[in-house]
Design goal:
The complex is a heterodimer of chains A (289) and B (323). Chain A has 289 residues and is mainly α. Chain A contains 13 helices and 2 strands, in the order αααααββαααααααα. In chain A, strands 1-2 form a two-stranded antiparallel sheet. In chain A, strand 1 and strand 2 form a beta hairpin. The longest helix of chain A is centred in the N-terminal third of the chain and has 32 residues. The N and C termini of chain A lie far apart (40 Å). In chain B, helix 3 runs antiparallel to helix 4, helix 3 packs across helix 10 and helix 12 packs antiparallel against helix 13. The two termini of chain B are 31 Å apart. Classes of the chains: A mainly alpha (289), B mainly alpha (323). Chains A and B meet through helix 4, helix 11 and helix 13 of A and helix 5, helix 11 and helix 13 of B.
Chain lengths: 289, 323
Amino acid sequence: MLSFGLTVLLDGVSYGMILFLISVGLTVTMGLMRVVNLAHGAFAMIGGYVAGYLTQRGCDFYLAALAAAAATAALGAATERTIYRPLYRKGKLAQVLLSIGLVFVVTGAVSEVFGAFPYPVVFPAYLTRPVDIGFRQYPAYRLFLIASGAVIALLLWLLLDSSLYGARLRAAVDNPRMARAVGINVSLLFTSTFTVGCGLAGLGGALGAGILSLEPAYALKYVVLFLVVVIVGGEGSFEGSFVAAMALGIIDTLGKYFVAEAAPYLLYTAVFALLLWRPKGLIPPRSLA
Amino acid sequence: MRRARVIAAIGHALPWVIAVVYFFAAPSDLDFGIQVMIWILFAMSLDLALGYAGILTLGQAAFFGLGAYTTGLFAIHLSPDPLLGHLAAIGVTALAGALTGAMILHTTGVTLLMLTLAIVSVLSQYANQATDLTGGDNGLQGIRLEPIFGVFEFNIFGKTAYFYALVVLFGWFVLVWRIVHSPFGRSLDGIRQNPHRMRAIGTPVWWRLLAIYTISAAMAGSAGALSAHATRFVGLSVLDLLTSGTVTVALILGGTRRLYGGFIGATIYLVVQDYSAKISPFFWEFVVGGLLIATVLLLEGGLLDLGPAVLRLCDRWQAGQRK
């Protein structure tokens, strides 16, 4: 029983780590600039395809993942400067439409270039084997996800909580106008955050390709999950999205073990119930509370 | 003044005249005309919720799909009477709209958007799993229909289906027209612009939103029913998020809150889809996305805004000349 509970926990946490890694960029940008970016999943997908393309040609997996992060970060910076910038003063509807348009463009382009079939990322052999973790054999890949997710989350937490950059960012999320008034360059801050967020999404897309499998429909299919993480956690709340990602991962895994057929309904029912109870999410940032 | 009214009257009659002319001009392409009308109706339903009431939704495919599946299942298991099936679809989708609306309309913005997306995901996963009921990936086949009123038979040339779709579209159009120009419609306008102020002057905001969301759902369901009748097939794609996306494109392309936005948008969208799909099966997605981006960035009011925008440019240019 205990070992079963641990297995569910490991499965859930590894899944949650990937959700967190991809969504964290979205939560900060949505909290900071109130920009609805439905194309966030498209960035994760591009990252995954970059890693897939490179690893299939013999490139080292870790190098490929870094390249995926760098490529999506660069792409994120470029689109932020050219396409998203004119939208900040327009309403949410315009942002939703534009980012959905981007999703279509990326989906169409990816299907054209790589075909509509699932596209594998080649993981190193030792990650694809199960390892002994005391009470059972467990896939090394999932342990690797938990470890890398934890490291990145810790780094992010240190960056946001203890650096000057983090202090500025938190200030800007809480009150952008006041932040501007005390001399923080919110616009630059936003570009950099958007860039980092997209890079993380690309990294998450590459690392998580073993769970969220790559296909052109990825961008549209999983964006709902990423939005769920952001909103359930509370828009703009770093801790919130971590808790939400873990909770969603574990609920989904539990559902898959006990009521395989009903797993998606369980997840969304939980989300509906939670939002009836707390419409602003689990841990809303103070300015929103 | 009188001249302006004549022009306006001609403008209002134009789409319907075109629809009738098309029937005689392109008897071999009636299927395309039916698809256009279905998508116009679908886009109009979205316009009520998204355009007029400002409900940020990407979940309209849920009702389109539910309407299509209801009609299909009704025809297979209960009765092959098309009108009864259509009414059943409208009833079921109205109920679904009211129930889901009651669950989600207390939220706004991205949260609302996410919940509408979640509803589509849940329904499409259900349709995918419940293969006994929906046929899963193979779709719902074997829909047989009786003649409408026992007289007008559905045949392969689609003449009956064409006029059936036209009459349904016209009926809904008149209803939308009445809603938009009623005090209820005006209050929706106010709610979109400032819900807090509307609440302050005593408008029951939540109830109004629920009402329009329900009507919009029933309309989308009706479009779904037309689609099931026209093709006598219901596939999983009716519940796809992509379907929600494309109807949004059709509406935005034409312009929201114009009554006729869907007419222009859906027509252009389907023509573009038809042509670009011939180039490559994936190319149309690319084109549709590009169109959407261009419309949002350059043409805020959609294509219906193109005329006035050009006129404004001319005015400005003339004003510049006079200086």
